[in-house]
């Protein structure tokens, strides 16, 4: 009920900019979709550049190749070494035996490629309808997180070779599947960078709840939202694309007329701290 009332209130306050905002959302969605397609396009120049450097690597250093059967041995039992594969790259994790050894918490990662489990936490190949190295269904953001795991292994453990299969051909060259994933990761990284830039311009507010008398205080400092900056800004509601939910961000006055921003009730544009009733609370709460 309270939610409906506050939605109504918002609608009535937002009629003209609301229409403009919807139009903006549609335009952004179209540009975003086109941009995404561009990234997934087969002839991505950036990917081709990476491919070139990988090919020359292959010529200069002979990279050992493993079949899934060969990798299976490195489970700490058949062979005392522990190997795991992520995105088709195999690492020797023997010195992390306390994590990966037989009976240890992350032993399921060993002697195979179950890349998807790094994101989903789903370890049981039998109960999964796709094999656990199939990662194309993950979102760009999830794939970036998977890439971070790959980078972690590259920094922490010794690379021992490539796994022939989903990500690498029998020749050791990356498969088309590998490049599809690579393009999606690059798209995810770009997305993350844009989000980071947005957060620099609109950092989250500090928030304090008071159960009695049911109020929430929003305020801005030069460090709120974990973003160090020279300006503090003013607390303001930032509406999501659905125009129903919002969060509190710190904005500079020059940005106040953006359609997705709206001042809290009873908080004028000179208020650095806003205390509102719980019904005005946002999805930060
Ligand atoms: C999708 C979920 C998760 C994945 C894929 C994951 C994976 C991993 C991996 C691979 C390691 C070993 C890193 C290394 O080689 O040094 C690790 C370490 C660790 N994980 Fe997780 N983890 C997950 C969730 C969690 C959760 C929920 C917790 C805590 C409740 C946790 C606690 C730890 C701790 C404490 C270590 C370090 C152990 C140590 O250094 O002795 N993990 N994790």
UniProtKB/TrEMBL annotation:
A GO CC term assigned to this protein in UniProt: membrane
Domain of life: Eukaryota
Transmembrane feature ranges: 20-39
Keywords (A to Z) from UniProt: Membrane, Transmembrane, Transmembrane helix
SMART domains: Cyt-b5
Keyword Transmembrane listed: yes
Domain Cytochrome b5 heme-binding: residue ranges: 66-164
Pfam families (UniProt xref): Cyt-b5
Keyword Transcription part of the UniProt annotation: no
Family (UniProt): Belongs to the cytochrome b5 family. MAPR subfamily.
Protein name: CLUMA_CG017497, isoform A
